[in-house]
Structures are given as C-alpha cells and as structure tokens.
Write a structure and sequence with these properties.
The chain is an alpha+beta fold and 197 residues long. The chain has 5 helices and 6 strands, in the order αββαβαβββαα. The chain has helices at residues 8-30, 72-84, 111-139, 164-167, 186-195; strands spanning 51-54, 58-62, 91-94, 146-149, 152-155, 161-163. The strands form 2 sheets. It has a 3-stranded mixed beta sheet with strand order 1-2-3, with helices on one face. Strands 4-5-6 form a 3-stranded antiparallel beta sheet. A hairpin with a 3-residue loop joins strand 1 (51-54) and strand 2. The longest helix has 29 residues, at 111-139. The termini are far apart. 29% of the residues are buried.
Length: 197
C-alpha cells in the first residue's frame, strides 16, 4: 500500500501514533528521581504554593483552577478538607491569581478534578504528615498512633491534644513535595463520612 492509498482516517491514526511516541520520549530520556508526583504537582512542587495552615483555625488553599459554574472549587475544597481531616467550613479557597496561584494551565472539562484534585490531595497528604510528625513530638506518641478530628490531634489512649492551628508556626510548608506520602485510601473517607453523620 502506498501513501496515496491511505484514507484520511488511516493517515490520522498513523500520525497520532507518531505524536504520542514523540510526546512521551522526553520523560523517558530524562528519567525520574523518586516517586512520581500526581497531576500538576510535578510542575508546582512547593507545598506552600498549594496550601497554608493558619493559626486562626483555617486552611488556605491556592489553586490554578477557576470556577466556571461546574463546582470544581467546592470539590477541590472538599478534597483538601477530607485529606486533612478538617471541617469544610475551615477551608478558604483563594481565587486564581497569576502572581500567587500554582500554574495549572487551563480550566477545562474534568481536568480540574483529575489533575488539580490529584495534586491538591497529594499536597494535603504531605502537609498532614508534616503536621503529625510535629504533633507526635508534642504528645510523645508515634505519628501512626494519632487521631485527627477537625484539626485537633490526640494520641490513641493518650493524654492531651494539640491542634493544627497551634502547630502552624512550627510546621513550615516551605518545601518541595516529595511524593513519599500516600493519600488516605478512599475507604477511609467513606468510613469517616459515615461516622460524622
């Protein structure tokens, strides 16, 4: 079969395969150090470019996604609240600002939740881990023995508690995401939702 015998569809399919092969080549040639960061977190690695735990009892979230009536800003706030174990009313979503927000490209289709949500979820998981390490020092307990409810941290069977807000000054998020902290499994979110009804 010669090039002249190809239909437009066959030519498009052939070119599509070439484009995919070339678009994947750079990531293969450079390799990746460490765990892969999800969504747009790889292009915006600084945790403090995504969120901040405030001493006044709130979590400030920066996103590169705009609200176009599809509810993505509310969904992103819910993702952060679930991952950090705080009430949704504590999450303050900051409108997109090109000087402050992570560069997430465009807001289109389901990409806001697929890529932006994955990035925020991973950033929040890592932030939670950082705060729990500091809380564990204060409570003389292992981080895995801590329970968080609406930002208040207690040790299983232990005395005392401390909040995210009290730890805000001690837990800097001015660092790059490592991708080494796994977000909570979906089953945890389901159980928490049932428990909090």
């Amino acid at each position: 079969m010669s090039a002249r015998d190809l239909s437009r569809r066959e030519f498009g399919l052939a070119v599509g395969g070439i484009v995919v092969a070339f678009s994947m080549a750079p990531s293969l040639s450079f390799g990746q150090a460490g765990p892969r960061l999800p969504g747009t977190l790889a292009a915006n690695r600084r945790l403090d470019s995504w969120l901040r735990i405030d001493p006044l009892g709130t979590v400030t979230v920066f996103t590169g996604r705009v609200e176009l009536g599809q509810g993505n800003v509310t969904a992103l706030a819910q993702i952060v609240a679930e991952e950090l174990d705080v009430g949704l009313e504590r999450v303050r979503m900051i409108p997109v600002d090109t000087m402050r927000s992570p560069n997430e490209g465009v807001t289109a289709g389901s990409n806001s939740i697929e890529a932006g949500g994955a990035a925020l979820r991973a950033a929040a998981a890592e932030a939670r881990s950082i705060v729990l390490v500091k809380a564990a020092e204060h409570l003389s307990a292992a981080p895995e023995k801590l329970i968080v409810k609406d930002g208040n941290v207690t040790a299983v069977g232990g005395q005392g508690s401390i909040s995210y807000w009290e730890l805000a000054a001690e837990t800097s998020l001015q660092r790059e995401a490592t991708g080494s902290v796994a977000p909570k499994p979906a089953s945890t979110h389901t159980l928490a939702a049932r428990h909090n009804r």
